[in-house]
Amino acid sequence: MSYDVDKIRQQFPMLNSGKKMQGHPLVYLDNCSTTFKPKCVIDAISSYYTDSTANSHRGDYDLLYQMDVEVLNTRKAVARFVNCDVNEVIFTSGTTMSLNQIAFGYGLKKLRKGDEIILSEEEHASNVLPWFNVAKSTGAVIKYVPLTKEGDITEDNLRKVISRKTKVVSLVHVGNVLGNINDVKMMARVAHEFGAIIAIDGAQSVPHLKTDFKAWDIDFLSFSAHKMCGPTGIGCLIGKASLLKEMEPLISGGGNNVDFHMDGTVEYLDPPAKFEAGTLNLSGILGFKKAIEFIESIGVENIHQHDRELIEYALEKLDKCDDIIIYNKYAKNGILTFNRKVVFAQDEATLLNSKGIAVRSGQHCAKILDQYLNCKATVRMSTYLYTNKNDIDVFVDALIEGGDILDAYFTN
Question: Of 96, 116, 212, 222, which is most buried with the most CB atoms under 10 A?
Fold first, then answer.
């Protein structure tokens, strides 16, 4: 291991509360969905309500000024973490809101009939459904870049579908089912060669991989705090300043305008304020900053190495388990997607739950991936910085041991 996992685990109340599932010690392996929070993040959230409650950008007294400073400091922390400019950081409720802001703020304004939007089969619903709506409204056409048999987006396959009509390329960095790490810098280079902008869904990558917005030359990046030890209800849209100035805000109201008049004219503030109407999730913003600092103290490269070691360890242990179908054995991230032969995914997850193991089952919001996988639902195990080898041992032993699926539904 690249750091002391047991020492890290001591900082997470959820891992030290003695919490059990179905009478068994909790083994949490659903980190793609959300992550546990260290005490420093919980304390930061609580401190807003106990020590520093005030709005931001709403008055001229000390408490409010101090909150303005905290918001700016979090914005600076995000900019440092993903290597962008401070004024390119927009606070949103999370990845879903960020992707919708791109689709409706940029796509709806810029696209015309016959223009092309490129997605892939492995995209999350949040990076598909908004573009469906934009395509219907504008007459734009959606195209899908084919995946390789290993689940990758390659330059050759991207070039098969992109054209001079392509205006938007919106793709995932790390898929939440296959877990492959796509080459963002390559995808951006190809998109720009054809005059398109590129938006990257970083929900599953930013918490695990070194992110470099500037060096990759991407136009938009979306991610959530709750997948990186931060609070729910807060995330970011990172956008190139020039594009943010052209976009329309998804939400309008107090705090995002200079002035408006009875004739309907509005003068918006410069980004990021232009996109942050209403009261921000201020307690979440304080927790977000602590989460970033916590991850930086460990090192995101170390977290990625840790994820890979655990998945490789699990794959080695499962090598002779003939009734387990693994769909992404070539992935180099902390995601393992599988099924047990002739067992429905949710039944398998329920059986694992009866043994205290939390995994995800279903389509994982990637509902157009079923033809590629040739199945409707899968079970997904995902690791994070506090997952240890004992968690993997318990998980693998439960798979090898198997059991009567029906017993899981009658466990007290």
Answer: 222
Residues pairing with 380 in the sheet: 337, 360
SS3 call for 18:
coil
Nearest to 179 by CA among 395, 398, 378, 394: 378
Q: Are 111 and 325 in contact (CB under 8 A)?
A: no
Q: Which of 234, 265, 296 is the last residue of a domain?
A: 296
pTM for the full model?
0.96
- Catalytic pick among 40, 236, 321, 365: 365
Residue 70 has pLDDT above 70, yes or no: yes
Domain shared by 369 and 381, yes or no: yes
The proportion of the chain whose per-residue pLDDT surpasses 70, expressed as a percent, equals 97
For 232, how many CA atoms within 13 A lie in the half-sphere containing its CB?
A: 4
Q: How far apart are CA 350 and CA 334, in angstroms?
A: 21
Q: What is the pLDDT of residues 207-257, one digit of tens each?
A: 999 999 999 999 999 999 999 999 999 999 999 999 999 999 999 999 999
365 part of the active site: yes
